[in-house]
Every structure is written in structure tokens, then in C-alpha cells.
Amino acid sequence: MTGRNTFIFALLCTVLFLLQAGPVWGASFHLVHPLRFGQIIASPYADAIGMDASSGPAVPRNMGGGWSRVTGGNSGLIRYSPGMPGQQVQLLFPASVSLYNGHGGSLVVGAMDGFSTQYVTAQDMADHFLHIGGVLNLQPGASGIYGGSITITINILNP
């Protein structure tokens, strides 16, 4: 595929806990797997690769209408084990996350708040899964392996 660039992207999640209304009562969070946009054969033009995980697991797809092709990849997944029934969790995401390739190149992931699980209420003590998505904005000529990290703020409200 002459004239196209290939790059791979992975985003690791760091979770910052902000507690509301007292102690967490044994709630726990575990990163099952990070957000990965997979291997992308980028078009020579700007493009957008999105993963809408707002209602469950997702795989990346071209959202920009360009010629970029995507293989592999998955939405991020956090397992939440509630401390009590009725416990509410809210995830807050930054407006954007910068990714770097180690050679001076950077890309931006945005729209994470609209493409991820934002709220969950524990009806019982069963585990819940929080899905993380977003939109990777490709720049012309982007190539290489890009990576980065994100801090997700988790607000917990006990009943």
C-alpha cells in the first residue's frame, strides 16, 4: 500500500479516585485492558478513527470518511466491584489526551466523555464493567507507534 502510513495506538488508563459522601465501603476498580485503536493504515489526509463504547464494548471504525483502514483494537475496560447496593459511580474524562510516538510526533484523542460509560448505579453487589472509548484524530503523515496515558476521575456516591 504505497503512500500510506501504518501506526499502532494504545492508551493506558490511570484512575484517580475522588470520594463523595464518606468512605467507599469496599468498592474496587481494576483495569481489565486498555483502550487500543489497533493497527491503522492511514490515508494521506486528515481522518478520524472512533470507538463508541458508551453502551458497551466497541471496536474502532473510520468516522472521518477518509481512506484509513483499521484492524484490531478494542475499547478500554474497567471492572467495578461495588461496596454496597445503590452505590453510584460517575466517570469524568479530560477534554482530550495527547499521544506521542517518541520521535516528536503527536496525535489527540477526544470525545471520550461522549464515547464512554459515564454513570453506573449498582443495583446489587455484582461486578459492573465500564467501557472507555474516544475519537483518534489522525494528522496527514502520521506514522509510528503512538501511546499515552489518561487520568480518569471517579466520583463515588454512597446511598
How do the strands and helices of this protein lay out in sequence?
Layout: E1 5-20, E2 28-33, E3 35-42, E4 47-51, E5 61-62, E6 69-71, E7 76-81, E8 88-92, E9 96-100, E10 106-110, E11 119-121, E12 128-132, E13 134-138, E14 144-157
Parallel strand pairs: 1-14
Antiparallel strand pairs: 1-3, 2-7, 3-6, 4-5, 4-13, 7-12, 8-11, 8-14, 9-10, 10-13
Protein name: DUF4402 domain-containing protein
Organism: Desulfobotulus pelophilus
Please state the average pLDDT score.
Answer: 84
Q: Tell me the strand order in the biggest sheet.
A: 6-3-1-14-8-11
The rounded distance between the terminal residues' Cα atoms is 56 Å
Please identify the structural class as seen in this structure.
Answer: mainly beta
Estimate percent helicity.
Answer: under 10%
Rg value: 17 Å
Count the E strands. 14
Number of domains: 1
* Low-pLDDT sequence parts: 1-9, 13-22
Shape: elongated
Strand content: over 45%
Can you write the helix and strand succession as a string? EEEEEEEEEEEEEE
Q: Helical segment tally? A: 0
Pfam family, one: DUF4402
InterPro entries: DUF4402
Organism: Desulfobotulus pelophilus
Protein name: DUF4402 domain-containing protein
